[in-house]
Amino acid sequence: PFPAAALAASRCPAPLTVLPRAALLGRALSPPGAQAQTLAQDAHTSPPAAAINWTAQLVEEMYANISQRCWKLFVELMGNVSAPQLCEWSVISRPYSLLQSCLEDWADRLSYGYPNTLAESYIFQSHHHYFHNCTPPHQVLDPPEDVLLAMIIAPICLIPFLVTLVIWRSKDGKAQP
């Protein structure tokens, strides 16, 4: 039910498109006083991972931008789902799984931690907006109280009887063949 263009675009957003402007200009990655190079000038090399000193605020800002793009992709894919299909897992599993994996993969890449508050808010938002009228096809109900009580009491009463039987049989003293 999804057009090929939407599926081709279903990959997680690229990291360079969501970096803050200062990072793209090299200011956040360069030591103070160093001449800033644009990303285009230094496209062939990237700084070693140890040289990048990202602050928690920068990582949080990057993850917020990326997660917003993950959400926009999810909304775009869900736009191709008709209202009667919203509760069919076979139809919505791909966009839902892409949202979840996009949020989780980027959290892992940025060492941001998953699950996190922002990811949970997007997951809850998806349920509230798209799946609020969905119910399981056959809802599992608790058994009646009398059946439940019998299932709980039967093993409790059976255990002392079996222990007594084992002790009584072991007191005989004769070797069992």
List keywords for this structure.
mainly alpha, 53% helix, disordered N terminus, 177 residues, elongated
Short recap of the structure:
This protein has 177 residues and is mostly helical. The chain has helices at 4-8, 21-24, 56-78, 89-109, 117-130, 145-170. Helix content is 53%, strand content 0%.
How would you sum up the major sheet? Answer: none
Quaternary organisation: single chain
Derived from helix and strand composition plus strand pairing, the structural class reads mainly alpha
The helix/strand series, from N terminus to C terminus, equals HHHHHH
| SS summary, helix count | 6
Transmembrane segments: 147-168
Organism: Nothoprocta perdicaria
Protein name: Receptor activity modifying protein 2
Membrane topology: Single-pass type I membrane protein
Can you describe this structure?
- The protein is mainly α and 177 residues long.
- 53% of the residues lie in helices and 0% in strands.
- The protein is built from 6 helices and no strands.
- Helix 3 packs antiparallel against helix 4.
- It is found in: Cell membrane.
Element layout with pairings:
Layout: H1 4-8, H2 21-24, H3 56-78, H4 89-109, H5 117-130, H6 145-170
Helix pairs in contact: 3-4, 3-5
